[in-house]
Design a protein that fits this description.
The longest helix is centred in the last third of the chain and has 15 residues. This protein is 20% helix and 31% strand. With 175 residues, the protein is α+β, with helices and mostly antiparallel strands. Strand 1 and strand 2 form a beta hairpin. It is built from three helices and nine strands; from the N terminus they run ββαβββββααββ. The strands form three sheets. Strands 3, 4, 5, 8 and 9 form a five-stranded antiparallel beta sheet that branches. It has one domain.
Length: 175
């Protein structure tokens, strides 16, 4: 990319290869209401996510990110089991995209990458507002817009668990 800009008052010209495509960062104040919406829900026992930079990414640049919000509700109390007899674990089995008690949205994808969009056609489940609140926080966490805030407060390679009594950070091992 050719530019005619300046840096600290000095002209810069030439071919400049752009680096990371990170999105503009947002302050913690914009994340707070999405967080609070889940904390205020009496049916949500706890929620959390993992955040890390992959060690290897099939040749692509390894960039820090959040890997999916999970939510434990009163419908999946500690010790409860799924239809296969396996105990619900905080993490993949309670991921908001495939959550057993949040419900689901039906729809279809339209358009081509990178402008492809999911067109929502209807909701099936017990509480559409709760579903939307959980997905709004998940979208914000995975957007990359809060990466600086998340790294500052919780660090790298972390499993974060949020309860109304506080937030626990554990070291997270991943491949």
């Amino acid at each position: 990319m050719t530019t005619d800009t300046n840096f600290l008052g000095m002209p810069v010209s030439g071919d400049i290869t752009q680096g990371s495509s990170r999105v503009d960062q947002k302050p913690i104040e914009e994340l707070a209401p999405l967080f609070q919406a889940l904390l205020d829900d009496p049916t949500i026992i706890r929620f959390g996510w993992t955040q890390y930079t992959p060690y290897f990414n099939d040749g692509d640049t390894c960039e820090f990110g959040v890997k999916g919000l999970w939510v434990r509700t009163t419908a999946e109390p500690d010790g409860s089991v799924d239809e296969y007899g396996d105990e619900y674990e905080d993490g993949y089995s309670l991921d908001v995209d495939y959550h057993p008690s949040l419900g689901k949205v039906k729809g279809h994808w339209e358009g081509r990458w990178p402008n492809r969009e999911y067109v929502r056609e209807g909701y099936e489940g017990p509480d559409e507002d709760r579903y939307d609140r959980c997905h709004a926080l998940d979208k914000a966490l995975q957007s990359g817009a809060f990466d600086n805030v998340l790294l500052k407060h919780f660090g790298e390679h972390a499993l974060i668990t949020v309860r109304d009594s506080g937030i626990e950070v554990e070291s997270y091992e991943h491949d």
